[in-house]
Design goal:
Number of helices: 3
CATH class of the largest domain: Alpha Beta
Shape: rod-shaped
Structural class: alpha+beta
Number of strands: 3
CATH topology of the largest domain: Outer membrane lipoprotein wza fold like
Strand content: 15-25%
Order of helices and strands: HEEHHE
């Protein structure tokens, strides 16, 4: 077998190994858990840690935590459709 074919196959093999190694990194970054945990504290009736489906929003967790009436002014400036991430802390409190 000619040498240039062996070199080509060797480079192809090395390239494939690096490609597969990088694919594993991206796959782990893109993995989305089926469930997330979010902690809610502050002006809510039920503070605590909530388990939600991945892709849940602040609006979803606040339905569970039940904001107190005095928090309504605070929440008006929020993007309630913002997606939550696993381990996120949601503070419902006035800024001083």
């Amino acid at each position: 077998m000619p040498r240039y074919i062996l070199w080509f196959l060797a480079l192809l093999w090395i390239g494939l190994a690096f490609y597969l190694k990088e694919e594993k990194k991206w796959a782990s970054l893109l993995y989305t858990p089926p469930e997330i945990r979010v902690e809610v504290v502050g002006l809510v009736q039920k503070p605590g840690v909530y388990r939600l489906e991945s892709g849940s929003s602040i609006r979803d967790v606040l339905k569970e935590a039940v904001p107190l009436p005095e928090s309504q002014g605070i929440l008006q400036g929020w993007n309630l459709d913002e997606l939550l991430i696993d381990g996120q802390l949601v503070r419902v409190e006035a800024k001083h």
